[in-house]
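FIELD: query
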Amino acid sequence: MAPFKYYDMSRSQDHKFSLRLNMVFHAKKHGIRPTARAFDTTPKTVRRWLRRFDQGGRAALGDRSRAPKSCPHKLSAYRERKIVEARNKVPCCGPRRLKLLFDIQASASTIYRILRKHGLIKPRRKKYQRKNDLRQIKAQYNPFQRLQMDVKYLFDIPAYWPQMKDLGLPRYQYTTRDVKTGAIFIDYADELSTTYAILAIERIIHHLGDFPIDLASTIVSTDNGAEFGGNERRLRERGFHAFIERQGITHRFLPPATPNAHADVESSHRFIEDEFFDLESFRSRTDFFRKIATYQSWWNFARPNFSKGTRTPAQILEQTDLDPRVLLLPPADLDQLFRHRYLPYQKGSHLPKLSGLASGISEAPGRDHRRP
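FIELD: result
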């Protein structure tokens, strides 16, 4: 006689097979009803395991799948293939963005399951990487109250580097991102210098000045790169920091080794690389600036930001009663802008006298201290 009921014993994974095998042997020797009484179960249960044993041997005594035989609402193989094809076209897009861009008639969770099934899902961020999420605090800022500025090196992007070498495309990207709306303003240059950093931020400041924006409360934050004066040991009357302060705007340096403090502009660099540089091909430098201008407009006016309530930067500005046309500042070729403004053609070897930004320039653009 079994010391416990068959039902109780069968709930233990370690005893299931042995219990069923003993039941089958007992039934073959003593019969079905005596075995049912001995194992404190029903004759129907004994017959089921005896029948399975006779049909498939010991392997048939394991658990069978309880999944339904059919699923009427299951996604068809055709639609599943379309989801995979969409992901392969834009591998930078997640389930929600794929559903939105390709008008996929399936839930985001279903799309995620399909992508995970085909190994197309990147590992999720760890808890320690998410705990410093400050989106609720950032949502309380006013538009253009906090601007994050950084420079991205473009020559380490595998898909872009061959085109950069062959076509003479820009090597550096000067990025400025608004924390409140997520809007970006991007400029490009062949050199890394304080001069170009000043030119980039000057364009933005003058452009914002044409709209009802209180620049006195604006804070521009940068890392400690040489182009921003981060290697200086004393405050100077020239350079990026001095230029910002003369505009009545506060400039803040980030503490060293704190990349998360610039999470907004750093994340935009990753998205731009995934969504633009890894996907686009170019015919010339002019073609490059035409396409990057289109991308910036798409980012600011059409690309929903799921971290900001699935809204675009333009929609956020509309909700704050600010004209979205403030985002219409196309990317600039800083090399061409510098030559046009400060290097007019002259005969002879005399250098032209700089004006305007001359007091804010600390080095010529050709002096690149971090060029590989």
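FIELD: remark
Confidence is low (pLDDT under 50) at residues 345-372.
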